[in-house]
Design brief:
alpha+beta, 287 residues, single chain, elongated
């Protein structure tokens, strides 16, 4: 799933390649991808793209005429840049293509989604805040105003485990399954530790790990073409997706806890005092 660093890199790439160009055609291939109907998708056609912005994991393409094309790539969605776009209209029902955007210069991009769970979402709105997922977002963790005091205030009284709290988009925008694992590994904290139980020193350490992990991931991705971002993300991860491999910090074996629709990875030596976490839903640290 694309998270804050990859979406930030996509924003930069699209700013360079889209801003100042005119949208000549928007072709929904999978009708389920469109989540709005007013304005119609055709309202984007003939409009110049004036800005590309990121809200958490959402991408916003703003036009001079007002409509915004807002996209959430969900778990298996991606943006594929095409220069030039293929000739001829795409064929519905063939492959992962969900939506195509064509520019006046012959270039454009495809939104694709692998797998059978179709969660890729596209909204055509007058204001990004009309998108429910954008409206409920918490603060951006890389914003200048997101300091340690604000982070501590968010966690105060938060009775959930750290893993769940970090992934809650209404608490902090943009962090998903992969980078929450990476942040907790960098902070040397168990994913099942209660957020409200953190001491001031632990809060400071977690805040530092959050900012450093995301900032470094953004810097690794900066300047890369859209097609290279997935590989860059995977290569930069230390524990997420690396079950059975040695921890790059201490050499212990990276372990996994599986849930019905996801999994987490962690290092017992670095994060849980050497104790394994029970691999079952609602698991907690074995004592």
């Amino acid at each position: 799933m694309p998270e804050l660093p990859e979406v930030e890199a996509l924003k930069d790439f699209l700013t360079e390649n889209l801003v100042g160009h005119e949208v000549v055609r928007v072709l929904p291939v999978a009708i389920s991808v469109l989540k709005t109907y007013d304005p119609p998708v055709t309202a984007l056609e003939g409009q110049e793209i004036t800005a590309v912005r990121r809200y958490g994991k959402f991408l916003d393409l703003a036009t001079g005429g007002g409509p915004h094309l807002v996209t959430h790539l969900a778990r298996a969605g991606w943006l594929q840049w095409k220069d030039p776009l293929p000739d001829g209209p795409p064929r519905p029902g063939k492959g992962p293509l969900a939506l195509r955007v064509a520019l006046e210069n012959g270039a454009g991009f495809d939104l694709t989604e692998a797998g059978t769970q179709k969660r890729l979402a596209v909204y055509v709105v007058r204001d990004p805040q009309e998108v429910p997922g954008v409206a409920r977002l918490g603060p951006d963790p890389l914003a200048d105003t997101f300091d340690e005091d604000r982070f501590a205030a968010l966690l105060a009284g938060e009775r959930r485990q750290l893993k769940g709290a970090l992934r809650d988009q209404s608490l902090i925008a943009g962090v998903g399954n992969a980078y929450s694992d990476e942040i907790l590994h960098a902070a040397k904290m168990s994913p099942f530790k209660l957020a409200a139980s953190l001491t001031p020193e632990e809060t400071r350490r977690l805040y530092g790990a959050l900012r450093t992990t995301l900032t470094e991931a953004v810097e690794r991705s900066r300047g890369l073409a859209a097609g290279r971002l997935k590989a860059e993300k995977k290569s930069g991860l230390r524990v997420h997706g690396r079950t059975g491999e040695p921890c790059p910090v201490c050499g212990d074996t990276v372990r996994e806890v599986s849930f019905s629709d996801s999994s987490l990875q962690y290092c017992p030596t670095c994060q849980t005092g050497g104790k394994p976490l029970a691999d079952r839903r609602l698991s907690r640290l074995l004592k």
